[in-house]
Amino acid sequence: MTGSSRLPVSLRDAYQAKRTTPRGQLLALNVDILRNIVFILFVLRWTRKAFYTLKGRGLTGTVIDTYTSVRRILYGYFLRLPGVRSKVQSQVGEAISKLEQKLVPSGPGIDRYIKLPAEGWSAEEVRKELEKLSEMKHTRWEDGRVSGAVYHGGKELVKHHGGEDLVKLQTEAFASFTYSNPIHPDVFPGVRKMEAEVVAMVLAMFNAPEGAAGVTTSGGTESILMACLSARNKAYAERGVTEPEMILPETAHTAFRKAGEYFKIKIHLAPCPAPAYRVNLRAVQRLVNPNTVLLVGSAPNFPHGIIDDISGLSRIAARKGIPLHVDCCLGSFLVPFLQKAGFETEMFDFRLKGVTSISCDTHKYGFAPKGNSTVLYRSDALRAYQYFICPDWSGGVYASPSIAGSRPGALIAGCWASLVACGESGYIAACHKIVGAAKRIESELHAHPVLAADLKVMGKPLVSVVAFTSSTLDIYDVADAMSARGWHLNALQNPPAIHVAVTLPIVGAADQLITDLVESVESVREAERQRVAQGKGAKGSVKGDAAALYGVAGSLPNKSVVVDLAKGFLDTLYKA
Ligand SMILES: *Cc1c(COP(=O)(O)O)cnc(C)c1O
Ligand SMILES: *[C@@H]1O[C@H](CO)[C@@H](O)[C@H](O)[C@H]1NC(C)=O
Ligand SMILES: *[C@@H]1O[C@H](CO)[C@@H](O)[C@H](O)[C@H]1NC(C)=O
């Protein structure tokens, strides 16, 4: 046995051998060198990390981040102290059971089916029960009372073709393709064709260059997950990046954070400061480092409906050679048509050289049935990075473009039918109505004496979402006052605000929305005045749901209580 073949001895053996024999001395020296190299690499790695952290967040930013996370951890321990813990748990439990009472119907009049019926029902019985289910008491989206959620009005849109109803057309499309599954293109050639055509039509809407490609997915979240996966895989394949990071505007959709968790991509949030609420480009630039695999911009974002400075992001992306994803999930079939519908717009699509991928939800303003979206790439090579291919499975060579294996061909047919039934003219007309209504709401917020006194529009929304905040009232009280009037607006946080995402059903209810908002602001203002009159110390009246949740959540250094509440909420969804 030669000396060199004994190298992999344990460190302790090496130290014992140290200096006792010449060979031992040599070995010890080798081990020392190895140890030093490892140490230097370790130090280099941490120096590099520290350097990029400091570069990314600056000295103050780093200090603030450290302070926040120390506070969060300490507060987390505080919440776990025996006395505190039981109190918190009982309050969380109480809140969850209240939620359950609201969401899960119970009582003698309610039939619950928690086992398969021993004998199958007749079609008539099934139909009767389905009808009952669809008519359960709910917030009235049909009357335009719900922000977002249902984007087309069913009857409205396809009227220019002889009064046909879009929902009816979609249902017929389902019926013809219920059994189909695009995983078998030879069995269902029509489905394959429709799917490819949906992608082609959306690519054309976003001015995709020659060679661009895309896929369809089950929704905006999957589209975003796939874009992040593709960027991560590309960076690994082409640059050997093993600790991927991506830079998001803090207002970017939370699906990007989901992608970060699922695919182990570190997230950096870049601020979107008032008054414009667009992502700060200098902050983005500073956060770029050799591990950056993707930049992100929204057109527009969910919270405030603001389009980020995509041209600016594109310049950074192109200069640094990093992919840029533009999230048009919400903008979907509105942003591409703003100009044609006569509204102000901005550049956001593939005409900007740095833009490498775009997500566009057909199931939002494309008016397709829920469960459908697209993700587009500048090249088919980028698309291939999201593919999953397994050449050696015992079940055969397997290849699938996205997360799902088997997929519903019926939804593809429903999506295709919606796109061709509306056509460009249909979408331009819808854009006209929807963005027009959003503008009307925005201008009332600026001009109406009651609204202008207490509410403030956030930034300059160009599309369908109008967000507003208040420096004089608790904006969540306003949200609750609107709920009491039958509205479902979206509560936002950091900073506290609410928004309305205008949809076709809301277009007809916009005037009512203004009226109710005026009333709500007046009532909250009056309640506030009474509270002040009774003295500052007096406990306010019972808070509504939004005010209670966000009032607490906003002030907590560690949101584990909110996490527990949210878990309880998810559990409630599966209570039969
Ligand atoms: C709705 C939305 C998404 C994706 O949401 P899904 O519910 O998964 O379709 C992504 N980004 C923005 C800005 C959105 O509004
Ligand atoms: C709260 O603090 C605990 C530890 O103190 C930590 O593990 C947890 O991740 C924190 N939770 C949140 C949501 O900040
Ligand atoms: C529609 O949705 C299904 C899954 O929900 C998806 O597999 C399919 O690709 C989508 N098709 C289109 C045209 O968006």
UniProtKB/TrEMBL annotation:
The molecular function GO annotations come to: transferase activity
The yes or no answer to whether the keyword Cell wall biogenesis/degradation is present is no
SUPFAM superfamilies (UniProt xref) = PLP-dependent transferases (SSF53383)
Q: Report if keyword Calcium is assigned.
A: no
Q: Which cofactor does it need?
A: pyridoxal 5'-phosphate
E.C. code: 4.1.2.27
- One Pfam family per UniProt: Pyridoxal_deC
Tell me which UniProt keywords the record has, alphabetically.
Answer: Lyase, Pyridoxal phosphate, Transferase
Coiled coil region boundaries:
none
Which family does the similarity line name?
Answer: Belongs to the group II decarboxylase family. Sphingosine-1-phosphate lyase subfamily.
Under PANTHER family, the record lists:
PTHR42735, SPHINGOSINE-1-PHOSPHATE LYASE 1 (PTHR42735:SF6)
**Protein name, UniProt field:** sphinganine-1-phosphate aldolase
